[in-house]
Amino acid sequence: MDLAKHWRQKAARYRLEGQRHRVTGDVRFPAQPAIPGEDTDVWEPFVFSGQGEIYSFAVLRQAATGFEQIGPYPVALVKLVEGPLVSAQLTDCAEADLAIGQPVEMVTRRLKDMGEDGLLVYGYKFRPVLR
Amino acid sequence: MHTVFIIGTGTTPVAEHYTRTLTDLALEAFSAALQEVAPAVAPPDIGALYVANALGEALAGQSQLGAFLATATGLAGIEALRVEAAGASGGVALRQAAMAIMAGVHDLVAVIGVEKVTDKLDPEVEAGLALATDSDFEAEQGLTLTAQWALLMRRYMHEYGYMADAFAPFPVNAHANAASNPGALYRFAINADKYRKAGQVASPLNMLDCSSLADGAAVLLLASERRARELGLPTIQIAASALATDTHALHARRDLLWLDAVQQSATTALRQANLTHADIDVLELTDPHGIAAALALEASGFVERGTAPRHAADGGITPTGATPLATGGGYKARGDIGGASGVYQVVELVRQLRGTAGAAQVKDAQVAFAQCLGGVGATAVTHILVNTER
Amino acid sequence: MKQPDRPVGLVGYGVYVPRYRIAGKEIARIWTDGQGGVPVDAKSVPGPDEDTITMSIEAARNALARAALPATALSAVWVGSESHPYSVKPSGTVVAEALGTTPWISAADWEFACKAGSEAMTASMGLVGSGMADYALAIGADTAQGRPGDALEYTASAGAAALLIGPAEQSVAVIEATLSYVTDTPDFFRRADRPYPVHGHRFTGEPAYFHHIRSAATRLLDKLGRTPADYTYAIFHQPNAKFPQSVAKQLGFSNAQIAPGLLSPQIGNTYSAIALAGLCATLDVAQPGDTIFMTTYGSSAGSDAYSIVVTPTLLERRNRAPLMSSYLARQEFVDYAVYVKWRNELVLG
């Protein structure tokens, strides 16, 4: 069972924490280690607003292991207002409700149930904006 | 640098080979290839074995396939290794094998592409394919490889103003060609009307626009030019081999509808071969979905951005078109054999260049273009094959 | 019960109600052939990816947004629920991580049937009122369980409310006073490892719900020298639509006083969240100077009573987060089959 694999991603998963470049102000998600030649501390933690719009979407009817019980489920590339694209599930919506360009917002939901003796994995999804 | 020739090929039919193991499949294809070159070539002549396989651990429960299949094919003791680059494994293994000959390390080698997927049920297969996505930020979000292509298709439709059924010509062509390929998984024709009515798998991708993963093995025997001439088998030259990489995650890409690695490997390959797009007579691409074929045709430079569906609708991808595609059925109808697909592609193109491709034969085909992708083009390998005798 | 050393209040508040509903009549269609009345018109149903933790996170984010405080200002994140996703592993730590308050924080889970949320609220008052903390977050959240076909199945619903307790001078509403009344009265309980609670039918009424709410409410009114007429609004625990209206009447509160906070007819009983959510919904419409009386109830058994005064600060903070009406408006009805699928009541092997 994956424990540390999910645990180490909690900042990104739970609250959409990525990085901002201390000098240029560029933002990115997910966070990455500095590459050779880059100052190791030039990227600082940055929490995204969670606001964005649908860049593309698809509704999956053949799920991978671990996602069978929530299907069919929509997935999307979401363009965050700060710029980066994020791959994520959409929730609280029907396929007919969805369109490219539609405003969405981040919510923290159950991503995966690893079974009776397993971990519940939580993470970001996006939904059509509430108001 | 030594020039490399393909001297022999062999395949199993692409199918749900429930009664057969991974070893059985590899052995059948290997034997078929040996048969083709017998008696000039015998197993002791083979200097090294390159096994292309993407999902051995996930779906077949077997690793270290180099040694495993060296033993199984009677080559015990030789240099052997497994090459994994998801769906590009076949192309990458071929390139590794060709480079060993180019470098003069070996002068006759075998490439076995093999995949055994039907021991597992569908969700595990989807999860296996999803290994080619970014684990933490795509697969764990519930995305699959099919989902990635679907996301690209929706965006493509949005940007270029197509309806989903604009992609129908790709699977229609693939199925039409597969009908005459005895080794294809789906040997029946479909039409645009059936495409329109097909159920959604990962909307906008429907059932008739999604390939099926199946079992199979394909083998290539490669030799240096000198060795090929000694053996009297010098026909198909590997005129170019180029590999490029891109991000696993779609969200990390600069331009989603442009496959950078495809463009880079195609451009490099054409330059190596000193050829232009107009010289290419027949193609194999990673085409599990129409959108995949469309993006590869565009990034490879065969058609302008945003025009591939129109090109296909105009007959451009049929055996008589400007860019004949999937003459053996492609991923959609021949079947997607995971890491072996790249080897099947080259076997099909060798048939074309030898003029033995049957009903889907492209007239006077002399130059062929094989390109396979890992994931959505995180790895792209392009080979150009030339028939030096016709 | 004494009052805090320093006055405390709500510096922020937030609610969450899932998008999905099932109609009481749809449940009755399955179990009673549609015959007989239903205790609520509809109840909220959590989506397949929702639980007490996820709902708590959204309600808490709304509370923080209203307060316009950085998450690191919090000293405690306390989650009251009888449907914590884990038996052992706190909901509070996940919520705290999601808010970005970790690691220098107290996080814990509370359980007291339907008043686990108000337990956390009273404890937060103590923490802030004693000067141990400036801000503490008290959350009530539940995805309540009802045995299929049981009377509880009509009402046991899902939702969350978060109250950010802080200094009175920064508050949208000051908590003037509180007290608790507790006995061992076994009207409703769930043994460890059992999926559904059992309840005492009519025993849940007079000796349980009514006695405890009346006792706590009357005592607090007496202590403050007030009468129901002194309050603009009132909220009582809502196991169904009828009980809160009956107890209000018994105490002398009018239907108009309880109307803004009476949520059960629309969304059922969100257990630990329902009274706090009723308070939040009341704050959504209250004006500065308005007074609010709240009495919660948790089975087996106890009640917490609160007297609350709205400040002018409410008006500037109210619209910084979605109102209860936004959550109520997005209702999407599902049928019993979908409801059963999402409740994991199908044996999938």
Identify low-pLDDT runs of chain B. Answer: none
Main beta-sheet annotation of chain B: 9 strands, mixed
The number of distinct structural domains of chain C comes to: 2
Largest sheet of chain C: 9 strands, mixed
The CATH architecture of the domain at 4-120 and 213-231 in chain B would be: 3-Layer(aba) Sandwich
Number of beta-strand segments of chain B:
11
The CATH homology group name of the domain at 4-120 and 213-231 in chain B: Thiolase/Chalcone synthase
- Strand-and-helix sequence of chain B, N→C? EHEHHEHEHHHHEEEHEHEHHHHEE
CATH topology of the largest domain in chain C: Peroxisomal Thiolase, Chain A, domain 1
Number of strands of chain C: 14
Oligomerization category of the chains in this entry: heterotrimer
Features:
heterotrimer; B: 390 residues; alpha/beta; nine-stranded mixed sheet; two-stranded antiparallel ribbon; C: 349 residues; Peroxisomal Thiolase, Chain A, domain 1; 2 domains; three-stranded mixed sheet; 32% helix; 23% strand; globular
Can you describe what's shown?
The complex is a heterotrimer of chains A (131), B (390) and C (349). Chain A is built from two helices and eight strands. With 131 residues, chain A is mainly β. In chain A, the strands form two sheets. A five-stranded antiparallel sheet of chain A has the order 6-5-4-7-8. A three-stranded antiparallel sheet of chain A has the order 2-1-3. With 390 residues, chain B is α/β, with parallel strands linked by helices. Chain B has a domain at 4-120 and 213-231: Thiolase/Chalcone synthase (Peroxisomal Thiolase, Chain A, domain 1, 3-Layer(aba) Sandwich). Chain B is 36% helix and 18% strand. In chain C, α2 packs across α3. The model of chain C has no long low-confidence stretch (mean pLDDT 96). Classes of the chains: A mainly beta (131), B alpha/beta (390), C alpha/beta (349). Chains in contact: A-B, A-C.
Please give the structural blueprint.
The complex is a heterotrimer of chains A (131), B (390) and C (349).
Chain A: H1 4-7, H2 10-15, E1 17-21, E2 27-28, E3 43-47, E4 51-60, E5 73-80, E6 85-89, E7 103-113, E8 120-128
Chain B: E1 4-11, H1 22-37, E2 48-52, H2 56-60, H3 65-72, E3 79-83, H4 89-102, E4 108-115, H5 122-130, H6 145-160, H7 169-178, H8 192-197, E5 200-203, E6 205-206, E7 216-224, H9 225-231, E8 236-245, H10 260-273, E9 282-284, H11 290-299, H12 308-313, H13 330-333, H14 341-354, E10 367-374, E11 379-387
Parallel strand pairs in B: 2-3, 2-4, 9-10
Antiparallel strand pairs in B: 1-7, 1-8, 4-7, 5-6, 8-11, 10-11
Chain C: E1 8-16, E2 20-23, H1 24-31, E3 42-45, H2 52-67, E4 76-80, H3 91-99, E5 106-110, H4 116-129, E6 136-143, E7 158-167, E8 173-182, E9 188-189, E10 198-199, H5 205-224, E11 233-236, H6 242-251, H7 255-258, H8 264-267, H9 274-283, E12 291-295, E13 302-310, H10 313-317, H11 324-329, E14 332-333, H12 336-342
Parallel strand pairs in C: 2-14, 4-5, 4-6, 11-12
Antiparallel strand pairs in C: 1-7, 1-8, 2-3, 6-7, 8-13, 9-10, 12-13
